[in-house]
Specification:
This protein is α+β, with helices and mostly antiparallel strands. A hairpin with a 3-residue loop joins β4 and β5. It is globular, with a radius of gyration of 18 Å. The protein is built from 4 helices and 7 strands. 22% of the residues lie in helices and 26% in strands.
C-alpha cells in the first residue's frame, strides 16, 4: 500500500495529517481484493430460518463465521434502574482510514493475525462476521477480512491498554 492505514479512533482529538505535497500517491501495488467478498460470493444462499425469523440477506457471510474485531470497552454516565447515577458500558468497534476504500472496519480470522497486523496491545472482541458485515454495510463502511497493514507504529501500546483498563475500572 502506498499509505499506511491509520486508526480513526483519535480523529476527534488530533487533526487528520495530510500527505506531503497534498495528494496521495497513485503508484504502488493495489490492495488485494478482500477475502470477505470471496466468502460472500461463494456462500450458498441462506436457508430460511426454522423458527420463521428472517435469515441473513444474500451476499452476507454466514453469521456463525467467528472473527476478532479491533474494539474496546467504553462507558457513559447514565441513570440506573433505581434512578441513581450509573455508568452504562458499551463496546466501540474501531474504524480505520484506508487510502483507497475510505473508512473501513477490520476483521481477523484469528487473534494471532490481529496481533501480527495491529500489535500485541490491540484490544479486540470476538464476534461473527455476518452481523458485523451487515451492520457496517448499513453504515457505508466496508469490512476487510485479514487485511494487510503497512508496517509502522501500532495504534495501541501497552501503556495505552493499561490506561484503558484503569478507566474501565472506574
Amino acid at each position: 500500500m502506498a499509505a499506511p492505514i491509520r486508526s480513526r479512533l483519535l480523529d476527534f482529538l488530533e487533526p487528520e495529517p495530510g500527505p506531503p505535497g497534498g495528494a496521495c500517491p497513485e503508484d504502488g501495488p493495489r490492495p488485494r481484493r478482500s477475502a470477505l467478498l470471496d466468502l460472500a460470493e461463494s456462500a450458498p444462499p441462506p436457508p430460511p430460518a426454522a423458527d420463521g425469523r428472517p435469515g441473513p440477506r444474500p451476499g452476507v457471510p454466514p453469521y456463525h463465521t467467528p472473527v476478532c474485531v479491533p474494539a474496546h470497552p467504553r462507558s457513559v454516565a447514565g441513570t440506573g434502574t433505581d434512578g441513581r447515577p450509573a455508568r452504562v458500558p458499551f463496546i466501540v468497534v474501531e474504524l480505520f482510514a484506508h487510502p483507497a476504500r475510505g473508512t473501513v472496519a477490520f476483521a481477523f480470522t484469528s487473534p494471532a493475525k490481529l496481533a501480527a497486523a495491529l500489535g500485541d496491545a490491540q484490544p479486540w472482541v470476538a464476534g461473527s462476521l455476518g452481523p458485523l458485515a451487515e451492520e457496517m454495510g448499513g453504515r457505508g463502511v466496508t469490512v476487510l477480512l485479514d487485511p494487510r497493514v503497512a508496517p509502522g507504529e501500532s495504534n495501541w501500546r501497552p501503556e495505552d491498554l493499561a490506561a484503558l483498563a484503569q478507566e474501565v475500572r472506574r
